[in-house]
Amino acid sequence: MASARTSSTTREAAPAATPGRVGVLLPLALDAPYDYRLPEGMAAPPGSFARVPLGGREVIGVVWDAGAGDVAEDRLRPVVEILETPPLAAPFRRFIDWVAAYTMASRGAVLRMAMSVPGALRPPRALTGYRLRADFAPESAAIRMTDARRRVIAEARDGQARGAREFARAAGVGPSVVRGLIAAGALEAVAIASGPVFDPPDGARAGLCLTPAQAAAAEVLAGRARDGGFSVTLLDGVNGAGKTEVYFAAVAAALEAGRQVLVLLPEIALSAQWFARFAERFGAAPAVWHSELTLARRRATWRAVLEGQARVVVGARSALFLPFATLGLIVVDEEHDASFKQEDGVIYHARDMAVVRARTEALPLILSSATPSLETVVNVERGRYDRLELPAQHGAAAARLIEAIDMRKSGLPATRWLSPRLVEALTETFAAGEQAMLFLNRRGYAPLTLCRACGHRLGCPNCAAWLVEHRRFGRLICHHCGYGMPPLEICPECGAEDRLAACGPGVERLAEEVAATFPEARRAIMASDTLFGPRAAAEMVRRVAEHEIDLLIGTQIMAKGHHFPLLTLVGVVDADLGLSGGDLRASERTYQILHQVAGRAGRA
Which of 407, 412, 398, 397 is nearest to 513 (CA)? Predict the structure, then answer.
């Protein structure tokens, strides 16, 4: 049988190990490894992936230690197999232990995040290729030669094994010609290894010309990436200061030192421009890690990270638990962003856990933001983190002018939300052939539906939230639990007809007002419920960048680092909206989002 060690919050040291047994941690809700007997002649160094019996099934876990030795030898079940997969490094296993203790989660649950793609634990299957038989003679009477077949034979004389489709493309023939030569015995099947999954980025490629302030910061970060060792550096620069190009210098230095790099972004689906800049800078695309990858791509990426083939990985918060072979640098871009916090399963903040992983593996960490979190600012002030500042925008961009408008003095009707001053500014912007953005952090048409007869508010039957009207979908939706229902014409409380009214603005209602005020303006809505997947987000960014849209209306996803050269005006509707409610960090987050969205204007 297997033996599980008793769990404790202090994770006391296990008893002295006994030869011939190992402790295997399983990716289940278990806090301690189980002891298994190691068959004679089987080697199982710590970190190895082992297939072991558990009840009536077999499970793959990780050899965590040498076993506790507190169960009789004759009661232990044997390890079935040690997989031919590179082991998890000792610092990464210590990181898993630390995260589990800090978050009060079981070590098995944290390990499950690191083993999120079980299919990647097996080596990829060899591909079948074809090459010319050594004893093949074209004059053989058994094979009728044609011009198409002669072209295939000519391509195959280099002796290189290739797939049937590759032969067909190279020779300019149809696949049936190659299949005919295979059937006739002219080409023989051989196993070929799959090529590298990712093209290696070139750290030696020259980057953009940096300003003196940027170059000084880049040199500091690149030096730390080259030298290694634990450090945390806040790269604090205003929007448009070129922070990305600066930390690219550190990425290049880590690559030249032969190490891997992890870059965490808050919204992978909204980072098309970032990926384009990376490819231009390093000559190849990075490996990507997020929840919307296909299973096959996740398998290939996970395996490439473990084997060190994926040199740069860009991902969401879950990428922090990838098993890097030679990790040398971590970058957390937009480190203040709330989406780095995982709020289900194992609860953790990826920014904070990135600091722990950098310390555990003795490597530098870069935190980049125009609006650093209060935790990071305090750590800088206490001397725990270093700080590099970029106080000026890059290039010839002019300083932004910010104007606050008191809507109480505008005298607008109850159904309008654009002040006369904002309408005037939009008119001037469109006349100049430039673009504008309207920001309102509310999805849908209206956040509340109210009965004007009895005052009843339509609420979610499952929770205490109000139902938000989405006219685009013809639904009333709860943004907390996802409950939905069709719009009502009769008040469920008093039975009054045609007295239910939409109260307050959402982005759909704002778009309705814009359509009436600027009917000629090309406009689009950018919100999480209007963009379905990374492709849709990338297409929206492309349309704005190429000036196919004059006015973009949307929520906070518009503020995620986009660069639109012709965007010169940002209007924020209900700027103090985020200050309401019971969020203790409301003022901090309101400042951050307003600062970020204002940074989309005047970048060029």
Answer: 412
Q: How many C-beta atoms surround the C-beta of residue 394 within 10 A?
A: 21
Quickly list H helices, 257-344.
Answer: 272-282, 295-306
* Cβ atoms of 460 and 480 closer than 8 Å: yes
Q: Do the strands 551-554 and 435-439 form a parallel or antiparallel pair, or are they unpaired?
A: parallel
Largest alpha-carbon pair distance within the chain? Answer: 97
Please report the beta strands in 285-337, taking only residues with DSSP state E, as ranges in sequence order: 287-289, 312-315, 327-333
pLDDT at 123: 79
Higher pLDDT, 414 or 327: 327
Reported confidence tier of residue 398, pLDDT bands at 50, 70, 90: low
User: In terms of Cα–Cα distance, which of 486, 523, 493 is closest to 507?
Assistant: 523
Coil vs helix vs strand at 593: helix
* Beta-carbon contacts of residue 335 (< 8 Å; ≥ 6 apart): 234, 351, 367, 368, 369, 372, 373, 376
107 and 97 Cβ atoms separated by less than 8 Å: yes
**How far is residue 386's CA from residue 356's CA, in Å, rounded to a whole number?**
16
Distance between CA atoms of residues 64 and 47, nearest Å = 6
Closest by CA to 31, choosing from 19, 16, 45, 14, is 14
Record the pTM: 0.81
**Are 96 and 43 a contacting pair, CB within 8 Å?**
no
Q: Rounded distance, CA 427 to CA 151, Å? A: 65
pLDDT in tens, 441-471: 889 999 999 999 999 999 999 988 899 999 8
Helix axes 164-171, 175-184, angle to 10 degrees: 120
Name the residue among 480, 524, 506, 508 with its Cα closest to residue 574.
506
Please give the CATH superfamily to which domain 3-115 belongs.
PriA, 3(prime) DNA-binding domain (3.40.1440.60)
What is the end-to-end Cα distance of the chain in Å, rounded?
68
In whole angstroms, give the CA distance from residue 105 to residue 99: 8
- CATH match of 416-447+504-604 with 3.40.50.300: yes
Q: And the tokens for 180?
A: 């005919």
pLDDT in tens, 501-557: 999 899 999 999 999 999 999 999 988 888 777 778 888 888 888 999 999 998 888
Handedness of CA 361, 110, 338, 292 (dihedral sign): positive
Exposure string for 126-137, b = 16+ CB within 10 A, e = fewer: eeebbbbeeebe
- 312-328 as b/e, with b when 16 or more CB fall inside 10 Å? bbbbbbbbbbbbbbebb
Mean pLDDT (whole number) for 476-493: 90
**93: its two tokens:** 């296993």
| Distance of alpha carbon 429 from alpha carbon 388, whole angstroms | 35
How confident is the prediction for the chain on average, in pLDDT? 87
Q: At what angle do helices 243-256 and 212-227 cross, to 10 degrees?
A: 30
Question: What class does CATH assign to 212-390?
Answer: alpha beta
Torsion of the alpha carbons at 546, 552, 557 and 563, rounded to the nearest 10: 40
